[in-house]
Amino acid sequence: MTSALTAPGPTTVDPTPAAPPVEQPRWVRPAVAVLLVATAALYVTDVAISGWGNDFYAMAVQAGTESWKAWFFGSLDPGNVVTVDKPPFSLWVMGLSGRIFGFSSWSLLVPDALAGVASVGLLYLAVRRLSGPGTGLLAGSALALTPVAALMFRFDNPDAFLVLLLVAGGYCVVRALERASTKWLLLAGVAIGFGFLDKMLQAFLVLPAFVLAYAVAAPTSLGRRLWQLLAAAGAVLVSAGWWVLAVALWPVADRPYISGSTNNSVLELAFGYNGLGRIFGQGHGGAGARPELPAGLDLPNRAGGGGGFRGFGGGTGLTRLFTEQFGGEASWLLPAALIGLVAGLWFTRRAPRTDRSRAALLLWGGWMVVSVVVFSYMSGIIHPYYTVALAPGVAATIGIAACELWRGRARFAPRAVLALMLATTAVWAFILLARTPEWQPWLRYAVLVLGALATAAVLFGVDSLRRAAPVVAVLGLVATLLGTASFTVVTAATAHTGGQPSSGPAGQRGGGGLRGGGFGGFGGTVESTVDLDRLLQATTTKWAAAQTGAMQSAGLALSSGKPVMAIGGFSGSDPAPTLAQFQQYVGAGEVHYFVAGGRGGFGGNRGTAGQITTWVEQNFPATTVGGTTVYDLTRK
């Protein structure tokens, strides 16, 4: 884009993009160090404020610290009855941390925070190689200061490691683009394959952009580009498929049930509940029925245009990511990034095929566009925090576009586009901040004023006040990042728990969920009482207790430190264990108590879970412990 934004004239471009020179300006290393240290301080400081975060995943990490089989499969308990409803990559990392440092909130959450620091660092390196260190620093800063990034990099959901693996894949594609390197393209495939082992098909959202950028801009023949891409697809298949194959070949009787699947299959889970079911809203795991909802959660039926699970993500459409539910998470810089992408592609329309600026825009801008479209039109379950996977694409795109437009500011057209990006960002930040009117009301007006000043300075003052260019640049950066940075800092300073965490000030309503918190009853757990904990801690059986649904049983396991069987998995709807299996466990004296009150968010007490509950109620004595009904399965 640089050549397109400078004065017109004949341009000679090296058809083989080379790596940036080894000698960088002296300010680069200190600036990168400041970026990484500040990011680490933001993400790691007081990370344990959120306790166990999402108790559902914390329960599985706890199990993995006690049983290697549970660690490998991602089981909810060390007895390996049923898995989480995701593959186990993130659980592997957190489980190893728990084994090394002891299982605690800190050992659980610090790996996610470090994944965030690594993601920022890798994004800097990737953007720098094609667009220079200044651009890389801006991109890394934009990612670090995205509210949903601060949310998920301090939380134990799989999303933190998904982002790290996707950014690693992007970095490898950039390295492959430099010299048409087969090795680096294969490594990109490996990163995406392991992304599949973290969050299944969501990892594949970046593949269209990766393929497009390499197919267009790699400095080699078309035939070689095609076979290299096929080889990379094979790398994706192998790196994702080894665990899938291991699970498929493992004797079913000797492994846990794959939660969320209808036939105990990882592939069915990937393409059903966690795949096409998320996109088209068909099938929701377990028995495949539409979920039974937690009390108070409004998820109307999908009917007509703009349907979808409104209680989670609102209606479908291109405006979804700008709604109250999604807007504050990752959209602060999205309008400007889209403007910059369109302008950048226009300015580079006559550039050589291997032009580095256009290749970077195709890579990161394609990542952004595909993610926007998919997240906007998903008709199945979608949570606002999913947009953390969009954040690197937005950050890199706006960094590349803004820096290239700034370099071409001598011409009016690039200057006008940059001014438009600044004005759009300021206005959109004002709107987002106005959605939390009681929190720092002065801030939105400061952003608006700074944005107006920066816009005017870029549009009219840069040519006449050349010596003031650094001041204008700093003013533009402050105006651009102040709104998103403020939300990011308050997000990092707030405790988040449950299955519906959202960014922003605590206690502020943001479209169906409590900002800064979790959604009680969905992904959260009912806290165990001291008396109940003591009862479970006194047991010596394989499972101290069993309860329907992991959303409640997780709280028992974490507070008591004892193995608890989550009947029916996450939602209580998985057929694991069956009634016959549970009766066998009880007959062998392996389960001491059955704790009533569990139901999970989706399954209720129907099906297998209902059969087990009925059998327990009819055959074992009940008592009340700390206000909870408990059945002693060792007595009749």
Automatic annotation (TrEMBL):
- Report if keyword Nucleus is assigned: no
* Record's bilayer topology term: Multi-pass membrane protein
Keyword terms of this UniProt record: Cell membrane, Glycosyltransferase, Membrane, Transferase, Transmembrane, Transmembrane helix
Membrane-crossing residue ranges in chain numbering: 27-49, 106-127, 133-153, 160-178, 184-217, 229-253, 330-347, 359-379, 385-405, 417-436, 442-462, 469-493
Predominant cellular place of this UniProt entry's protein: membrane
What cellular component GO annotations does this protein have? plasma membrane
Instruction: List compositional bias (Low complexity) regions by residue number.
Output: 1-16
Q: Which residues form the Putative mannosyltransferase YkcA/B-like C-terminal domain?
A: 538-619
What are the Glycosyltransferase RgtA/B/C/D-like domain coordinates in residue numbering?
85-239
Q: Where is this region: Disordered?
A: 1-21
Q: Name one GO molecular function term.
A: pentosyltransferase activity
The EC number(s) this enzyme carries: 2.4.-.-
Where does this one sit in the cell? Cell membrane
Q: Does the keyword Transferase apply?
A: yes
GO BP terms, alphabetized: lipopolysaccharide biosynthetic process; response to iron(III) ion
- What is the official name of this protein in its record? Glycosyltransferase family 39 protein
Which species does the entry assign this protein to?
Amycolatopsis carbonis
> Which classification does the entry list for the species?
Bacteria, Bacillati, Actinomycetota, Actinomycetes, Pseudonocardiales
